[in-house]
Predict the 3D structure of the following.
Amino acid sequence: MTAPTDVPIAPDARLHVATHGSAAEPGATGRAGAKAILLGEHAVVYGRPAIAIPVRALGVEAHARPATGPGRLSSTLYHGPIAQAPDRLNVTLTAMRAALAAAGKPDAALDISIDSSVPAERGLGSSAAVSAAVIEAVLGACGLTADDETMHELIQTAERAAHGAPSGLDARTVRARAAVWFDGGRIEPVAVGDDLVFVIADTGVRGRTREAVAAVAERRESDPRRVESALDELGELATALRDDVSTGARDAIGRSMSRAHVLLNGLGVGDPALDHLVHAATAGGALGAKLTGGGRGGCVLALARDAASAHDLSDRLTRAGAAAVWTTTVEGAA
Ligand code: MEV
């Protein structure tokens, strides 16, 4: 496990004394939400744009307060001393250490509790959301807040522990409140012409983002022409989708999503359980459906025609064997 001194301090960390608390106070809370990638996963690692949406039904709340003895962690995965936390909590601990290092208190002992409804390893941004909430809570417990760029850098420090060279899409999106366009490492809001109702269905199979990202990299080495052409098409679909979202062109959005699923399968990040739910979604009236996130398991994102059909679609996906189903609406301006 990484020693505290190995955690890089964000080089130009811009931290501010919290106006609503101080180090003398008993603790602080951090929050972040789940995300779903509407289009552009994997292609975004190679500089293509992406669109992601917040999933408001799912979120993480972390609480941190100065410990009276050695720091302890309390979460669904582990309860006990931080010093003995298992390696599978490495991302969370990296987030905590990065925040403490940035605050100039690398050795501070904190009690941290994490309450998350975001399923882990399902492509919904659980690792970035937990990291974001923990970092905000730890900084808060030190009497500090961070600006957006510093938060992003700190979350990225933890995301690198999760899967090597993250694009930054997850780190940005788990703190966003609306649909975002991600390009060149930055996000901006996406105009939404009309309400879009999505159903997210969990295959119950753990997604393997690190492996999936490595598989795309290998395939790109061995077959650069085919992979670059798929990445280009994913980038073009994301660009077209942005316009379609702004005009509320649901059928076109659905078609782009379904095409993206085919292209992602071609990149080697699919899984039979994902295909099964994608087919169930389209047979159940979805306008389009695709894997979302790293793939090789995880969730399917399906676009419903409207709220009433989202209800039927959810039932259909549950009957098809989805381990869990959520509905999320991206609200239009109208
Ligand atoms: C994972 O949620 C999204 C990927 O594109 C990886 C990344 O953007 O770093 C697969």
